[in-house]
Amino acid sequence: MPDCRIGSIADEEQLDDLLSEPSPALVDMMRRISGDIAVLGVAGKMGVTLARMAKRASDAAGTSRRVIGVARFSSPGAREKLERYGVETIAGDLLDQAALDALPETPLVVYMAGMKFGATHQEGLTWAMNCYLPGMVAQRYRRSRIVAFSTGNVYGMVPVTGGGSREDDPLRPEGDYAMSCLGRERILEHFSRALDIPMAIIRLNYAVEMRYGVLADLARKVWNGTPVDVRMGHFNVIWQADANDQSLRALEHTNTPPEILNVTGPEILSVRAVAADFAKRMDKPVSFTGQEAPDALLNDASKARPLFGPPRVNAEQVQVWLSDWVARGGAALDKPTHFEVRDGKY
Known about the structure:
This protein is α/β, with parallel strands linked by helices. It has helices spanning 12-19, 24-32, 47-60, 78-84, 97-101, 123-140, 175-195, 214-224, 240-249, 271-282, 305-308, 315-327, and strands spanning 37-40, 67-71, 88-91, 108-111, 145-151, 158-159, 199-204, 207-208, 228-229, 234-235, 238-239, 259-263, 269-270, 288-289, 295-296.
């Protein structure tokens, strides 16, 4: 378990170690389940640490299991990292039917492929990635157990005072990204029912670490003296290691039709309060634009909590680490989350 007493994360190597550290519960699960794991879309922001966590948990459990990461690997470094960690890699375009058919059979699949940023100008590709591809994958892995990533954006805005959206709430997605993500869920549900595929769908809001995420966006805005937009005034986050851990443990909670699970932290955080906290910790001034709306994209993860327990790292601890990380010039992915967007256009 991460030592939350540390006030500083030294470098990316230590960060990646923390983000891929499995919980004892995940190690125990790896002893109970059998079969190799394919992580489809492994080269994204979470995939590398999730695949490494699966490998570390399997090794700690004493099981002989292949963890196979599949992606185009268009960005440098991800493939080399994975192979260094003992994760096998396969480069290929999942939308290519021949490439998909050529992938090895695995009893366990974590499906992470999807498209968000650029959706507004590439609507066709967005819908192909988020709706058409899930059907291809479900048919290819009809004999597997599948955990698939989705997003809390499918719920739409809810009142800040309501505690966040629950899994059985009405869905009101706005914009091509959110609508296509609901399309992904509907396609997966169809094939789960039609082909009797056990699945779990993870509605995530939002995974954070030092280089990327809502908290990293806010910390860097404060450090750089950029005014903070508070119109989307509230949000949920979860430390990426906890999101990885819970998503992998969902392999033991698949169902037909799919089990839907919100994954996020228990706190509803205020953009204004978090930015002010960063300003105090980093001894920087902070300014704000806009006014908080009464609603926001918020998830309630109380259904998942009995299954997985609380996150090992809370949002306040991430803020402590981030304040130090940003002040020291720590690495960033330079990919803003655009969490402040309220019209669904990413």
